[in-house]
Design goal:
Elements (H helix, E strand, L loop, with lengths): L4 H14 L1 H14 L24 H17 L14 H4 L2 H19 L3 H14 L5 E5 L5 E4 L6 E5 L5 E11 H8 L5 H9 L4 E10 L5 E4 L4 E4 L8 E7 L5 E7 L4 E2 L15 H27 L45 H14 L2 H4 L1 H4 L6 H19 L1
Antiparallel strand pairs: 1-2, 1-10, 3-4, 4-5, 5-8, 6-7, 8-9
Length: about 400
């Protein structure tokens, strides 16, 4: 891989084209489950209504419980959810080493708890639920040591190495002319610099490419007996390049010692780069439930305001449909006043709808995450623990 703008833009567009089917799939999922993120293949309008396809909120609630459950069980800020150790277990048991590991682990937890990690990782869990792929970018903060940023899944493209590990990330972000000038100044292309005063709010796509350098030069420091990288971010093993997509102008060349993007995938097929999600498993049931709910709404409206058969003689007469309204008609022999017939109920297959709701909840492991809230009050602590272990076994591969 090279640092030239042409190579980076070409690589991004190739990977983005290969991602087309996946993007169409998760766009449909977002429209039914999390419409606020339904901008994968379409450009949303600020403040526009995006929930027109949703007639039943089961999937939206299940996705929220899924993300909250993962957050509470895996990365709760109130619990020590990770601890440093060493490969040599005997070394880890030494009092001095044990004290250092404990102190360093606590310092790391304090740094993460004082950052925005909680908000960022919760969004990642949400993305895993509907898209199957998440992303989180770690950077130095201006007000805190760590800053975590997540991005639209549709604008991130991934590439794997020979071992199936994501080692290259290309992110497409729209910047206004004003933002580009503020960030990169005179390194912006001539076209953007010319627009700085005329049209500062016009947006341009900028690609952030992060990938391993193939030509990293090492030198040997004989005094320290260790191998060191050449000084400078442009020589670090992980390249970081910002490029204007349209002009292919390189705005910045930097680097990292290690990959700054974390890209978890819920379940991964051996022949696919992007993950599979619980939302993909639930999509068929979600669409069916929405269609059934849409039909039920029409049926309930007909119950509340049914169509009427009106004699031709009443064509010019006023028809009163308010409660207690009087409508005059020509009665038959011996026929007196009678109420207008309104059906009091309609047979709707609620049992089948509830089956679909349960299937959706099963896909998102709702029963597991709401176990303590929904358990029988007469269950003992041992029974609850055994039930929790049984349900956690279903999540084992993904949590691992």
């Amino acid at each position: 891989m090279q640092n030239s703008g042409e190579d980076i833009v070409r690589r991004f567009e190739k990977l983005d084209a290969e991602k087309g089917t996946y993007k169409a799939h998760i766009q449909e999922i977002a429209e039914y489950m999390i419409p606020v993120k339904a901008t994968v293949t379409t450009q949303g309008t600020l403040g526009a209504k995006r929930s027109s396809r949703i007639f039943d909120g089961t999937a939206t609630k299940a996705l929220r419980i899924f993300a909250n459950g993962l957050y509470g069980h895996m990365t709760s800020p109130g619990a020590p959810w990770f601890e440093l150790t060493t490969k040599d277990k005997a070394l880890a048991r030494m009092p001095q080493v044990k004290a250092w590991l404990r102190d360093t682990s606590q310092r790391m937890r304090d740094a993460m708890n004082s950052s925005n990690f909680g908000m960022a990782i919760h969004e990642v869990y949400t993305d895993l639920g509907w898209a199957g792929t998440g992303n989180i970018y770690v950077m130095e903060g201006t007000r805190r040591p760590l800053n975590f940023v997540t991005f639209n899944v549709g604008r991130i493209v991934l590439d794997e190495n020979a071992e199936g590990v994501v080692d290259a990330v290309y992110r497409l972000e729209p910047y206004t002319v004003r933002q580009i000038i503020q960030t990169w100044g005179k390194r912006a292309s001539k076209k953007i610099q010319d627009q700085a005063t005329k049209n500062p709010d016009e947006k341009h796509d900028v690609i952030h490419a992060v990938f391993p350098r193939q030509d990293v030069e090492l030198f040997y420091d004989k005094r320290s007996k260790i191998r060191r990288l050449k000084w400078g971010r442009e020589n670090m093993p992980i390249a970081s390049v910002y490029v204007e997509r349209e002009s292919k102008n390189v705005l910045e060349v930097g680097g990292y010692l290690e990959m700054p993007y974390m890209t978890p995938r819920w379940l991964r097929d051996s022949e696919e780069v992007y993950g599979r999600s619980p939302g993909m498993d639930a999509l068929a049931d979600v669409k069916m439930l929405n269609e059934m709910s849409k039909t039920d709404i029409k049926a309930m409206q007909k119950i509340a305001d049914p169509p009427l058969l009106v004699p031709d003689e009443m064509r010019l007469a006023p028809l009163r449909l308010t409660p207690g309204g009087l409508n005059y008609y020509k009665p038959g022999p011996g026929e007196g006043p009678r109420p207008l017939y309104v059906p009091d109920r309609i047979q709707v297959n609620l049992e089948y709808e509830n089956q679909r709701r349960q299937a959706i909840n099963d896909c998102f492991f709702v029963d597991l995450f709401t176990l303590l809230a929904s358990r029988d009050k007469n269950m003992t602590a041992t029974e609850v623990l055994e039930l929790a272990e049984e349900k956690l076994a279903l999540l084992g591969p993904a949590l691992g």
